[in-house]
Design brief:
alpha+beta, Jelly Rolls, seven-stranded antiparallel sheet, six-stranded antiparallel sheet, 22% helix
Length: 220
């Protein structure tokens, strides 16, 4: 599976047959989350809320290129590590359970805090942000204060099981947030004419052969 992810990435780089496409999926709720879209999420010192987006087909983290939430803040704002997105991974490629996860924080770079209470707000594309501290990779053995480049290096080729938006509170900072929309996009292959695919198959064969050679060398 890791080799197939590398082949897809190489095809996109060398032949540019990939375009951003909407990722389809289903939603599940946890904690105090209610609704069927839009969703209401509230938290107190003793309660939390989770909204999970589960892609129809698992694909590597590095193939996702857009994650944008539309939301209203009714109470509490952004801060103290919430809201945050837990990216749940399928590191053993069995698609049947929780393996590891890492976090992507909301909010402006540096402070990750915004006390704005307003309707019609939108996050930036969270997967385009490269600032330090945006990513917490402690759950996958990395730094708790790092960036997108470190995430791509550590787990870029690992499949994503779900994106879980988490809202919680501490110190009396209750939150009430409506999630109005979620846009998830990833790379998809564009059909090529037969002559072009002949060249791509040769490239894929070379990449696959190299992966086999590395595997055998590692075993030795």
């Amino acid at each position: 599976m890791r080799e197939s992810a590398l082949v897809l990435s190489a095809l996109c780089v060398f032949a540019a047959p990939c375009l951003a496409d909407t990722v389809t999926g289903t939603y599940t709720l946890g904690g105090t989350t209610t609704g069927t879209g839009p969703w209401n999420m509230t938290s107190t010192d003793s309660t939390y809320a989770v909204l999970r987006f589960i892609p129809t087909t698992p694909q590597p983290f590095n193939s996702f290129d857009s994650l944008i939430y539309g939301y209203d803040v009714n109470l509490g704002g952004i801060g103290g590590g919430a809201p945050r997105v837990a990216v749940v991974l399928d590191q053993d490629y069995d698609s049947d359970g929780f393996d590891d996860s890492f976090l992507i924080h909301w909010g402006p770079a540096g402070s990750f805090s915004d006390t704005t209470v307003a309707d019609g707000l939108t996050t930036p594309n969270l997967l385009s942000l490269t600032d330090l501290g945006r990513y917490d990779l402690a759950g996958v053995g990395g730094s708790a204060y790092t960036d997108r480049a470190a995430a791509l290096l550590a787990i870029g080729n690992v499949n994503v099981l779900r994106f879980s938006l988490i809202i919680d509170s501490f110190g009396g900072n209750d939150r009430d947030i409506d999630i109005n929309s979620l846009e998830v996009q990833g790379l998809s292959m564009v059909p090529l004419p037969p002559a072009a695919w002949a060249g791509m198959s040769t490239l894929a064969g070379l990449i696959g052969f190299g992966a086999i050679r590395r595997r055998k060398h590692a075993v030795a």
